[in-house]
Amino acid sequence: MRVRCLLFAALLLIRPAASFAQSPNPLTANAKIQFGALTGFVVRSAEKVPEELYTFRATPEVRSMAELFGHIADALFGMCSTAAGSKPPRAGIEKAVTEKPALIGALKEGVSYCNTVFDGMTDQKGVETVPFYFGPTPRLSVLYFAVTHTYEHYGNLVTYMRLKNIVPPSSEPTKPGQ
Prior knowledge:
By secondary structure, the protein is mostly helical. It has one domain: Up-down Bundle (Four Helix Bundle (Hemerythrin (Met), subunit A)). The chain is built from 8 helices and 2 strands. A hairpin with a 6-residue loop joins strand 1 and strand 2 (137-138). Helix 3 packs antiparallel against helix 6, helix 4 packs parallel to helix 6 and helix 4 runs antiparallel to helix 8.
């Protein structure tokens, strides 16, 4: 398992290296590749977890699975809109949306919105600063923080899924040809 995770991480960083060298925006291209792989796991997790487990909490003090999915969606809209220099097109998902289909839809919308922001980003534009939680922050750093934040909560989801004997998408066996 550990070797598999390390291999996945290495492939995520090495596989697209040739395309980075050819890209006029290698930093943005790398961030988008990481974002795509990770959000694919999150959306697949939302689809894979049975709806009756959306209320599951590992302990009473932590977010439920539904709240985690909603929190990730809110963060995608919030952070990507910050990087774009605009207001979030959606907010309040974590507190208001609890049903599986609606949460999957919100996650997909958040991913699509962020992909639009990534598509409009360049490395040069990415160094421009915008107001952020930690003070003025380069736009591209805000997008990388969206990736980091999503990784953090995907880790929560992995733990929850393992507690319920569900194999997380990032640990599923690969199919021949992948």
